[in-house]
Design goal:
The protein has twelve helices and six strands. It has helices spanning about 15-25, 45-55, 90-100, 110-125, 160-165, 165-175, 200-205, 215-220, 225-230, 245-255, 275-280, 285; strands at about 5-10, 30-35, 60-65, 75-80, 135, 155. Helix 2 (about 45-55) links the parallel strand 2 and strand 3 (about 60-65). Helix 7 (about 200-205) packs across helix 10. The protein is globular. The two termini are about 25 Å apart.
Length: about 290
């Protein structure tokens, strides 16, 4: 570990556990800073959980959101927010979509633009240069396949893997605290994430149909925006097998899924970790600090 440590707090239980353990164990000589990137489509309970970690554990968390420059060739920067001012109606997400189009399996730019780019922009403001700091990522030993193949190159560290921490360890620890992330597993932090299985998406829709109002509006407004829409000439939608929000609604009403890939291998976990292979490789220039 270098003398500067970026702790990526996704807003989930696992990264929350990692953050707590790190802040209570690393030497004072390490400049450790906790960052939470808000997409504007996080579940309200996620924002409450992050805020509770601030107030009850005394963490100093920097909240960031994407600040999109609509001009072509200008990268996404960041704006600093907090629990009170954080976007809750998808504002930064819509900024990204209005420029780059609908994110989906073919164009997975949402994590890059909503989390990775704002964090790099923040580090640049801190005058933290690539190679000068390590980034701690909340991935457990039982999800080791989610570790990035770019870890050594990009100074990514996985403390929970090193410590042999599994899901049951995390849940057991949180059960002893006086607060928790009160979300059922199928919701996750990003409620309608396109990486989820259709089984989970249908369950979310049945629980909370209004949570799909945002992706439905985005598809209707920006379906023909972005490079993929221009190249293909087709209207873009969020979900796998070129399914739209309306299709998810139909599935929920029909009472069955109708797809073979309900256990899609890349399905998101409780939260979307920033430094994944997809987000890192999708725009390597960001990694080089260009």
């Amino acid at each position: 570990m270098k003398n500067k440590l970026l702790i990526s707090f996704s807003g989930g239980r696992t990264s929350g556990y990692m953050t707590h353990q790190l802040l209570n164990s690393i030497p004072s000589s390490v400049d450790a800073r906790v960052v939470f990137a808000n997409t504007g489509q996080e579940d309200d309970k996620t924002l409450e959980f992050v805020h509770n970690c601030e107030t009850r554990f005394g963490w100093d968390i920097t909240w960031v959101e994407a600040k999109v420059d609509p001009q072509k060739g200008k990268g996404t920067r960041h704006r600093v927010t907090d629990y009170k001012t954080a976007s809750r109606n998808g504002e930064p997400f819509e900024e990204v979509i209005s420029k780059y189009g609908i994110p989906n399996q073919a164009m997975p730019h949402c994590t890059r633009e909503l989390k990775l780019s704002p964090i790099y922009s923040l580090c640049k403001e801190w005058e933290w240069k690539k190679g000068d700091y390590s980034s701690a990522i909340g991935i457990r030993v039982d999800e080791i396949d989610r570790m990035s193949s770019y870890a050594e190159r990009d100074n990514l560290i996985y403390p929970l893997v090193k410590w042999g921490i599994r899901k049951e360890d995390v849940l057991n620890w949180w059960s002893k605290q006086n607060f928790d992330l009160y979300l059922p597993e199928h919701r996750g932090n990003c409620i309608w994430c396109w990486k989820k299985s259709y089984r989970k998406l249908v369950q979310v829709y049945r629980d909370d149909p209004e949570s799909f109002n945002f992706p439905d509006r985005m598809e209707k407004t920006y379906g023909r925006t972005g490079a993929m829409a221009e190249r293909s000439g087709e209207k873009q939608v969020f979900f796998r097998k070129h399914q739209s929000t309306i299709d998810v609604k139909r599935m929920s009403q029909e009472g069955h899924i109708g797809f073979e890939d309900i256990n899609f291998v890349e399905e998101c976990a409780e939260s979307c970790e920033v430094f994944s292979d997809t987000s890192l490789s999708y725009n390597h220039n960001l990694i080089k600090g260009e």
